[in-house]
Amino acid sequence: MVLASVVTASVKSMGQQPNPPGQVHRVEDAVNQAYLFAHMTHQDYGRLYYSVSVDGLHWYALNEKKRVFDDYRGHPDICKGHDGRYYLVGNTNDASPAIDIWVSQDLIKWEKHHTYTPDLRSTPDYAHALQRIGAPKLYFDASTQQYILTWHTPHKEGTKEDPERYWASQRTLYVLSKDLKTFSDHPVKLFDWDMGTIDVFIRKIGGHYYAVIKDETYPTLYWPTGKTIRISRSPSLIGPYSEPSPPVSPNFREAPMLIPSPDNQIWYLYYEQYPGVSYGLSIADHLNGPWYQASGYTFHADWDKYSLPESVRHGCMITISKEEYDTLVSRFGIVNDELSTLPK
Length: 344
Prior knowledge:
mainly beta, Tachylectin-2, Chain A, 4-stranded antiparallel β-sheet, 3 helices, 19 strands, Glycosyl hydrolases family 43, GH43_arabinanases
């Protein structure tokens, strides 16, 4: 496809050195052929939009920057499931008691699969949980043939004098499922540390499970890791998880997303500088680090190592096949003016 050739050639011609590792000379040599970014926008928070990439670095909006599925509400998160279909999870808002799950064969047509309403107060050792469900995330663990559905729930209301205590009280909860229609008896806290966490997702890489988290404590000299992206690991899907790593991002970042590079040797970890200010990208060859931060999303082509459409807000990034990429571009159309952000 012409776009793929343009993107690959543009990345290779960038003037500043070094360029991000993990790229391939020809698209057909890529282990990971293309990527989908399912996200919201600054102007239309909580609704579903698509952008795509063939290199994991340069992203282009689809559908004339319009919604791709009007029924969706939430912080978009998609996983490929036990039956080869895609599952999308969300909720109307944090105060809604229910988590909605949709299913799709092609990432284009979505059908309601199930609505799950967790009994938050049944969570062990969390009797004071408030009725809040934030940013549900979904992961299918092929090793155990089950899904883990995570979200964050607080146990303290904010006050005028201390609004941050609401956020510091967020804890990550989970349930397990084989089919996303029946779930384990009650939610459970994922971590045993006494620390605010939100936006958590899990991936299995090699023999370990990694939980990518946002440390939700406000940063101070006594908690310098606050409002950063950190990583924990475990030999088991449900833990126990290690103490979180040092920060992978600067302070005041959230909504992390993780994808492998086209050659499958490097990790690209994106995160938002909120509220909708910018996007950052940290790069490593192993989730244990070390990580470095690439320059990008400045809209200066001779400086940027990565680029995204303007006004994108958080969601999820997943790998897709070249055929799926072509189908999405054919169905929705790609926003060609995004090509102008690439270096000449």
